[in-house]
Design a protein that fits this description.
The protein has 180 residues and is an alpha+beta fold. 22% of the residues lie in helices and 27% in strands. The strands form two sheets. The chain has a six-stranded mixed β-sheet with strand order 2-7-4-3-1-8.
């Protein structure tokens, strides 16, 4: 089968299987701000963005329950595949196993700190990790796969990238959508 035809059929099957949900690239965003930590995201089932609601925090509202997130850690690669289980809320209100996230021994407690009003807060989505890798096991981004400096990007039309990540993570996105 022609590689492009194979890509087209995989992408069409994914989209037809659950047209209400999408597959997203989501930057872990550790960066210079020292707020976020992949190990905390992985351990406590969430991802966050924010510190400036208009620029970053409101972007977390795009996620719907059942969306697939592909966590990307700059300088390393893709580190996780997960399913969104709850919509965006301030991290200061986020609970893991019925306890506030701030009550756990986070590697970076700054993620829970709100300096000022909620416009400056981090906003979290709850994620059920299907595959979550240590940073030193990250899946490198090949030259012909999707690349972005954006915080969030829809991958529904990134056929090559989706096929590559299905193979590397040993998952099937269509099957993940069926589990929703």
């Amino acid at each position: 089968m022609n590689e492009n035809k194979k890509c087209d059929s995989i992408n069409e099957e994914i989209l037809e299987s659950n047209y209400d949900n999408s597959i997203y690239y989501l930057q872990v965003g550790e960066g210079d701000v020292a707020i976020r930590c992949w190990e905390d995201f992985k351990e406590y089932g969430f991802m966050s963005g924010g510190q400036d609601y208009k620029k970053y925090g409101r972007k977390m509202e795009i996620f719907k329950i059942g969306d697939i997130v592909l966590a990307y850690l700059s300088g390393h690669g893709y580190v996780g595949v997960g399913i969104v289980e709850a919509k965006s809320i301030p991290v200061s209100e986020f609970q893991y196993k019925n306890k506030l996230l701030s009550s756990y021994p986070l590697k970076n407690k700054n993620v829970c700190v709100v300096s000022g009003d909620l416009q400056d807060a981090e906003f979290a989505i709850q994620v059920k990790w299907i595959k979550a890798l240590d940073r030193d096991q990250a899946i490198e981004n090949k030259t012909d796969t999707f690349r972005s400096f954006a915080m969030i990007a829809a991958l529904d039309n990134q056929k090559q990238t989706l096929m590559y990540l299905e193979k590397q993570f040993a998952v099937n996105f269509e099957d993940l959508f069926k589990k929703i």
